[in-house]
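Trying the structure run again after the queue cleared.
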Amino acid sequence: MCPQQKCLIHLIRDLNQILLGNPFNAEVQAATEQFGSLLRQIVASIDEHGLKRHYLRRHRPDVEHYFDGLARSSPQSEPAQAIRERLLRYREKLFSFIDHDDVAWNNNHAENAIKQFAYFREGRVGIMSEAGLKDYLVLLSLYQTCRYKGIGFLPFLLSGERDIEAFASSKQRIRRKATLPLYPKGFTPPHLASLKKPPKSS
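Done. Tokens:
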């Protein structure tokens, strides 16, 4: 199973809602303040160096220290207990991005990537087949991956390469004209049929 990264933007929104609903709860204030302080430090590193594991890994001890302290805590109020349980439940999925290059701490990339599927789905409810949907999703996944890698979707398909990473890092991209057949073999489109002269009879 591949590592997962939860969207921290949505988590922060939910924590803010709990805080707004319990403005005088000292336990809620402490829980949200500690998490916010930790995340602000990490985001400051992202602003300076980008989403690079080399720079973000230095925050791993702080992350573990935070969660260890959270696990030892025993808040009395129900809202603070809910925060503690949620953060501990997703402990392994909240800061996965610091262990990998170019993994966003929010889900902006994911939301943008599925917009095309949302557009495709409109007006097709009840008429999409499972096989057709699978093919579409495979192509959409390839397209979005090429997009984020900064490479052309069609050039990748025409290259014959099966590894996007290899294609993206190659210094010598295949540059050849497409030789895709426009019509099936043996088929002559009507607008070209009149241009073909019948063979002369001997």
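Residues 143 and 153 are 6 Å apart (CA to CA). Worth checking whether this holds up in the mutant runs.
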